[in-house]
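BUG: 3D viewer hangs when loading the predicted structure for this chain

Environment: internal workstation, default settings.
Expected: structure renders.
Actual: progress bar stalls at 90%.

Input used:
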Amino acid sequence: SVGSLGTVGRKCNRTSADTDGCDLMCCGRGYNTHQYTKTWQCNCKFHWCCYVQCNKCSERTEEYACK
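Structure tokens produced before the viewer hung:
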């Protein structure tokens, strides 16, 4: 280490061939895959009077980070 943080742990795009792609950004070291469930409130409706009712939406997603 010479003062540069490098790309270890940096998020990358698994399908991109550009500079944000895992193959190029990770310099051939490979990448880790992190799977998680993203949850948020959705389809919110205002009811008179006076509250908001929402559904809970979620989706499984993956993130990739250089080794």
